[in-house]
Amino acid sequence: QVQLHESGGGSVQAGGSLRLSCTASGYAGSRGSMAWFRQAPGKEREGVACINPFSRTLYTDSVKGRFIVSRDTAKKILYLQMNSLQPEDTAMYYCAADTSRSNCLPDGLKGARNWGQGTQVTVSP
Q1: Percent of the chain scored above 90 by pLDDT?
Q2: How remote is the C-alpha of 11 from its chain's centroid?
Q3: For the chain, first and last CA: distance in Å?
Q4: Which residues have a Cβ under 8 Å from the Cβ of 120 and sit 6 or more positions away?
Q5: What is the pLDDT of residue 29?
Q6: Is the pLDDT of residue 96 over 60?
Q7: How far, in Å, CA of 123 to CA of 120, rounded?
Q8: What is the pLDDT of residues 26-67, one digit of tens each?
Q9: What is residue 114's predicted lDDT score, i.e. its pLDDT?
Q10: What separation in angstroms does the CA of 100 have from each of 50, 65, 114, 121?
Q11: pLDDT of residue 28
């Protein structure tokens, strides 16, 4: 069974940076697509970034140019480098993975089979 564990969240001031990590176990790290989602209080969960097995990436417009998603298939780790953080980036961030998906499109992996427990990111003004 695939298990995902996020880490790296925390509190930063606006303009700061954080790097999130998602460690995967229970499957071959090179298979399938992986993604980051976030959910702020009172809001729906939204896709942030997705990466397929060929390292093609997909970002939501609000993070383009600020966030970078990457994966280390040998170590089975998904990363999200977040730069120029803003208060509106405050949310719980979740990692998702689906070994049956070789493409992030059309839904950015919203229907992924496996999810982590999340890590909190808080950005103060």
Answers
A1: 84
A2: 17
A3: 40
A4: 9, 10, 91, 92, 93
A5: 56
A6: yes
A7: 10
A8: 876 567 999 999 999 999 999 999 999 999 999 999 999 999
A9: 93
A10: 14, 29, 11, 29
A11: 63
Q: Which two tokens stand for residue 8?
A: 């790296």
Measured between alpha carbons, how far is 27 from 42 in angstroms, rounded to an integer? Answer: 33
pLDDT band (50, 70, 90) for residue 125: very high
Residues 6 or more apart in contact with residue 63 via CB below 8 angstroms:
48, 49, 82, 89
Cβ 56 vs Cβ 19: under 8 Å: no
| Omega within 30 of 0 (cis) for the link into 87 | no
State how far the Cα of 16 lies from the Cα of 51, in Å rounded to an integer. 24
Report how far residue 119's alpha carbon sits from residue 36's, in angstroms, rounded to the nearest whole number.
11
Q: How many CB atoms lie within 10 A of CB 124?
A: 11
Beta strands per DSSP E along the chain: 3-7, 10-13, 18-25, 33-39, 46-51, 57-59, 67-72, 77-82, 91-98, 114-115, 119-124
